[in-house]
Amino acid sequence: MKKVVCFVLSVILAFCFCGTVLAQPLNLSAKAAILINAETGEVLFEKSGNMRLSMASTTKIMTSLILAEQKNLSKTITVTEQMVRVEGSSMGLTPGDKVSFEALLYGMLLASGNDAANTVAYALGGSINGFANIMNNKAKQLGMHNTNFVTPSGLDDDAHYTTAYDMAVLTAEALKNKAFAMACSTKIQKVYLCDGEKQLTLTNHNKLLGTYEGLIGVKTGFTKKSGRCLVTAAERNGVRLVAVTLCAPNDWNDHKMLLDYGFEVTKIFEECAYSLPDSLPVVGGDCDRVRISSSEISYAVSEENASKFSYKVLLPDFLYSGVKAGQKIGCINYYYDNKLFKSTDIVCLADVYHSKAKMPFKKQFTEKFSLLLRLII
User: Fold this and answer.
1) pTM of the full predicted structure?
2) 60 an active-site residue?
3) Are 152 and 54 members of one domain?
């Protein structure tokens, strides 16, 4: 009984913006780099974005996301010798420690603990290989087509690789998780082990936190094979960007340039192009029409790719009685490059009863009284 009413944005939006795209390419030290709009997936800058490279401890973004998606982060496990038998950076776990999932999350994202990553792998996957299968299945779900995980921590392995683009996709998804976003943006965190008997103070390795405006994480990484790897995210005025560099000798400066560039070329667009009717007809109700509304939205877009944005309004031709104020009766979907990135509901603004005979007594009395006054006057 419903007809889909579609309005497709077909005009270039560039005229809605001021500012210009930087004319000169960025001079980065990174072997591979990418900058994306976290909300829409729009690629704002790319340098060998699909080149397969090792990614060191930025691997822990995937390990941390899988952990953060567990229902109970307060769950506690006992650390075994097998779990902490790993080289490299450590959060300070020892066999026999009782540690919560939440503490392990901070141990990976702040201290970059390989012991924390291994502990998560055994706790959730039963083994390193078992957890690698979980990681790779998650990668497929996210569309990370050029990634293969072997270790939960990022220790070097010829079969352990990703791309700058895939890491950006992963990070944009991970930041949607509140626990992950909170942990990766924390500078210093105290965690407690063994029912509070043991305390560790963890410090975030990301020196851009607190020094770059709007930075919200995410993860550092380094091995001799991979070189310096860095994933950052920053948000200003509703614009969230994700930057990734792989094998970047001067990664801190690379990320400042990438994020500065992104905030310069990305503008906020207040969506007002669509034209919704003020109301819809009602069948079998106590009124002929009911008012409807949808909240306004805004999204970030660069001038260069403005024409890749579109929207569709999904709305019935009429409504039956029985709807309530605030009830969803349609939606507006927003797309970048034909991929849905945001949706907003269309709702009724008033109750619609089945018929005047079934109207509440108070409403019947009010209507009759109003009619009587009009007749007298």
Assistant:
1) 0.80
2) yes
3) yes
